[in-house]
Amino acid sequence: MNPATAESPFIRACRRRPVPHTPVWYMRQAGRSLPEYRAVRADVPMLAACATPDLIVEITMQPVRRYGVDAAIFFSDIVVPLKAIGVDLDIKPGVGPVVAAPIRDEAGLAALRPLEADDVPYVTEAVGALAKELGPTPLIGFAGAPFTLASYLIEGGPSKNHDRTKAMMYGEPARWHALMDRLADITLAFLRVQVQAGASAVQLFDSWVGAVGAEDYREFVMPHSSRIFAGLADLDVPRIHFGVGTGELLGLLGEAGADVVGVDWRIPLDEAARRVGPGRALQGNLDPAILLAPWEVAERRALDVLARGRAAEGHIFNLGHGVLPSTDSGQLARLTDLVHRSTTS
Ligand code: CP3
């Protein structure tokens, strides 16, 4: 990592070192809330954009230019590595990932071959260009965690209750673990490609893992996510782990091997700090819907997040989930300034 990036507030906070101001970035900071995003995406399907280096670079830079956030997040999607190894899937606007032939048996499993760097040349190219263009500003690489990817693959699309996913997990544990193993290999390879091309931190999104309880997390999920974090240790970049509705899992998300635990809006950060324990930083956790209220309301709640974040050994300000598409970009600009003006002592 270049020395100026290593000393940036974002990387310092991830490593629980003192910072001049609380660093801030937003999940889904590049996306439909930005008019400049809607303009460049107008005629380009999502997965086509994710495979076009110039577009990846432009879209990744948009929120950095507009808000001056402390980190960029690589523009891609959690299903990009699956598409790259030949899984027939698409991202439907307003719906999410849809898989043509859901994976529920041995033949489906066999189709999930390992990912090689050559499968995603556009990722290597775009990350390299971004690392140059961003200068000292860190680039966060990311991937979907095995449970969340398994849910899309088994259900065939977004799911509320993850029934079929859990049916395989409980009813066919050997097949479940074989699937999770393959997904962990693919995810680890995808993250390593990004870091080796110049990403200076990674976030593993286990967005839907809040659907399982702690005991099941330990048995059916954690071994696979842990293997991914362990497989990144030699690269020496901060590892962030995030999921939605994971209040009861926060300690385990850290134990899986994360340096930073992402927290959704349901648990105050001081309570999250108790649950996660020492030795890890926290990221979060303003309710994204707060930004749809008048600024004075959002401001009060953001100051509360900052105050509670002081209970953590390091705090990266973020929302508790992604920016909602209807968010006014003026709100995010004011929020970014507010966080930057805050002092951390
Ligand atoms: O955060 C960023 O700015 C980086 C970009 C990013 C996208 N997807 C771009 C995207 C990231 C980090 C993701 C991760 C992702 N994708 C997750 C984990 C994060 C989370 O939100 O929990 C998940 C579960 C997915 C699957 C997915 N892809 C969903 C649920 C959707 C939304 C569908 C919709 O239209 O509402 C997508 C599509 C998607 N990925 C969009 C963006 C900007 C919207 C597509 C568009 O603009 O046309």
Automatic annotation (TrEMBL):
Tree of life domain: Bacteria
Major site of localization recorded for this protein: cytoplasm
Record-listed substrate binding positions: R28, Q29, A30, G31, R32, D77, Y152, S207, H321
Catalytic activity from the UniProt record: uroporphyrinogen III + 4 H(+) = coproporphyrinogen III + 4 CO2
Leading EC class: lyase
Locations listed in the record: Cytoplasm
Subunit annotation: Homodimer.
Role this protein plays: Catalyzes the decarboxylation of four acetate groups of uroporphyrinogen-III to yield coproporphyrinogen-III.
Family membership noted in the UniProt record: Belongs to the uroporphyrinogen decarboxylase family.
Protein name: Uroporphyrinogen decarboxylase
Gene that this sequence comes from: hemE
